[in-house]
Model the fold of this input.
Amino acid sequence: MLSSFSIGQVVATSSIQSLMSSDLSFHTFIYTSLMRHEGGDWGEVANEDHESNEMALVTGCRLFSVYECSEIHSFLGDRIWVITEADRSSTTVLWPSEY
Done:
């Protein structure tokens, strides 16, 4: 289900921000991931998380997406998480190890 919603203020952990500042391809990957998240493409989440996200669009709960990084950035982690708060005030981009 493709459904747009407000992602609020976008924030990223310092390690994500640092890599975005030094690597244009990673910056583009983060931007694309945020657009996918906002459009209701949850990436590589488990089925239960996909179902929770679809329900959260109706109930106003937290939204969670997972996107696979390219091999170039895999030394920092093989995926990023994108989490939008239930009140839609902010969305955070982070490595799973930073949760």
